[in-house]
Amino acid sequence: MTRLNDETMTAIDQKKLLINNQWRESSSGKTMDVVNPATEEVIAQVASAGKDDVDAAVAAARAALNGPWGAMSARERGRLVSRLADRLLERVDEIARLETLHNGKPISESRNIEIPAAAECLEYFAGWADKVMGETIPVKGNYLAYTLREPIGVVAAIVPWNFPLLLAAWKVAPALACGNTVVLKPASQTPLTALALGEIAVEVGLPPGVLNVITGPGSSVGQAIVEHPGVDKIAFTGDTATGKAIMKSAADTLKRITLELGGKSPNIVLPDADMEAAIRGATVGIFYGKGEVCAAGSRLLVDRSIKDEFMEKLAGRAKKMTAGDPMDPKTRFGALASKKQLETVLRYVETAKKEGAELVAGGARADIGTGKGYFVQPTVFDKVTPEMTIAREEIFGPVLATIEFADLDEAIARANDSQYGLAAAVWTRDIKKAHYVARKLQAGTVWVNTYNVYDTAAPFGGYKASGFGREMSAHALEHYTQVKTVWIDLNM
Ligand code: NAD
Q1: Which atom of ligand 1 lies nearest, measured to the CA of 161?
Q2: CA 108 to centroid of ligand 1, rounded, Å
Q3: CA-to-CA distance for 1 and 405, rounded, in angstroms?
């Protein structure tokens, strides 16, 4: 077994969970392997938690709420969250390396984009900690009525494997800033950076129980968290089917939930678009993050009059993109996160061919010269029709489905013809059309002449089956606080 060979990652080598600022083995003693998808080697073993461990983590989180964390001033809380951000940046090289080792994404993405974005998110919400305020309300009668914005309580953050640390930060940062405590459950494939965040929490002096990290399979430990009566809120990112199951289970204990789910986002190219820019945008839209991006622009809608030229250039570009060793700083296209994901992607490619789509780039497993790793070629299909499987289902990989349209109304109708509504984009030089299309699209984010742009200050979340609630921005604060109205009788 390749060791992580990093003395600061003691928690991982000792296969432990973080509960109440203590590193503990799972109560069953079970562990699970973590695989590097670029080499297929087992790189670590982590604890596989069970129901008892969930009980212990929730109890610790509750005790912290009723203890030092609940008593701490908002400003001091903010300072601690800000220290998490600082320490994350101090350890950025090491944590970026972990993110790449368990996920397969290029180290340049982990080092320069994802981990800094997670730190930025923590910093942003640290600033909000002492600015979450209630209001005084001009009610009728001789009363003073005011509101308090209070934490919800114990928040469970359940995250997927595509942006393991960033998506954890999107939840942990507002939850802590608003005074909640957290039980964080990373995906089984990618637990290492969540454990590193746990280490950092201890290092910077978060009180015991404020951030607990529980590793284990979703079907058992995730389910135990969702059913636990001591958890007040679930902040979930993952598959739409899992989101639905969580919503049903959480109903029994009336938990608050926010769901960030799947997508099949349309990327619309109008005939007046800057073609070179739109081709770059289509490429970034589907191939950034190996297409394992919830907002990936996986449906390319191109005006019939420019489609042939567009597709020729786009396919040429895709063919030039080659997969490489994710640890090489020059690599821009890494390995899919797991064997299962590779198989899923290749199955969709076969289905697309069978259903009559035309393969114009990629379509096969890629080899970086080692004969190992879950690499796939950047893949582009042309002549996709709206009823085909690859036009309807989320693939969550680097596979682009191109559909043509005849006019603006047809473009909008096709874009909205999906159960999903996470993101969308339109490419045009006409400002009126840009605003018109932006209003017509049923999506939580619309990009105009760009793709995959995010900022902690801007909300992100879904319409339709892509979920509800918003992450990042001031909107997230609403999902981590509850409002109490206080009435004071002023009648003399
Ligand atoms: P997944 O739903 O299988 O798993 C996500 C997390 O939920 C993991 O931690 C998993 O262990 C846990 N889990 C699984 N079953 C559970 C259950 N019954 N109860 C509680 N927890 C459970 O999803 P995935 O395959 O890890 O991630 C890919 C999906 O995530 C894609 O559909 C993608 O679109 C979506 N995603 C959405 C966003 C967004 O912001 N909308 C971002 C990233 C990924």
Answers
A1: 26
A2: 24
A3: 52
- Active-site residue set: 260, 294
**Residue 246, CA distances (Å) to 218, 233, 251, 257 in order:** 11, 11, 8, 9
Q: Count the neighbouring beta carbons within 10 Å of the beta carbon of residue 83.
A: 18
By the 8 A CB rule, do 173 and 122 touch? yes
Please name the amino acid found at residue 398.
Answer: P
Say if ligand 1 is within 6 A of residue 119 CB.
Answer: no
170 lines ligand 1 (CB under 6 A): no
Has this prediction a pTM greater than 0.90?
yes
Contact in structure between 227 and 31 (CB atoms under 8 Å): no
Q: Which residues of 382-412 are buried (b: 16+ CB within 10 A; e: fewer)?
A: bbbeeebbbbebbbbbbbbbbbbbeebeebb
What is the distance in angstroms between the CA of the first residue and the CA of the last residue of the chain?
77
For ligand 1, say whether the CB of 263 is within 6 Å of any of its atoms.
yes
Q: What's the CA gap between 255 and 251, in Å, rounded? A: 7
Picking from 148, 91, 150, 87, the residue whose alpha carbon sits closest to that of residue 122 is 87
pLDDT in tens, 260-306: 999 999 999 999 999 999 999 999 999 999 999 999 999 999 999 99
CA distances (Å), origin 371, targets 272, 285, 292, 344, 414: 44, 28, 22, 20, 40
